[in-house]
Amino acid sequence: MGLGTCAILLACTTVAVAQDVPSAATSETQHDMSAMSDAGAEHDHPARPVDPELPIPSLTHLVFPDAMDGYNVQILTKNFRFTPASINRDVVANEGHAHIYINGIKIARVYGTWFHLPSALFSDGVSAVTVTLNANDHSTWAMPDGQLIASTVPVIRR
Known about the structure:
The strands form four sheets. Strands 1, 7, 8, 9, 11 and 13 form a six-stranded mixed β-sheet that branches. The protein contains one helix and 13 strands. The longest helix is centred in the N-terminal third of the chain and has 4 residues, at about 35-40. By secondary structure, it is mainly β. A hairpin with a 2-residue loop joins strand 8 (about 95-100) and strand 9 (about 105-110). The protein has one domain (about 5-155). Helix content is about 5%, strand content about 40%.
């Protein structure tokens, strides 16, 4: 698909709250990530609240059309360190990897700040690309109050 045939919203969200993506015009509505489960999604990792005595990680991401195919996702974090060599080992505060979802379906683990999503993963219309921060045991980092640390960006494909 050429770049002239798709549009994309590049921007992002918040600490701990994903954005609802009902339409391209309303990308600022917030919702709890548990809605992914209500929609039959595969988000099944337990929440792991961050120690309130430590800096709270923050997350946002950008989605860019790729000139060859699909989209490139740039993950931007603060107070978080990607530690791919520690996967499936003991949990260390504010470390781990990310998980990426399209419309609530887990697509992949992400071990760094960039990831490519092939266009075959997207339908025409609006898709929600969500990134979560995950501990070494795959639990999802959450705010002390339990809200997941996640970011959602709408992608519009025509």
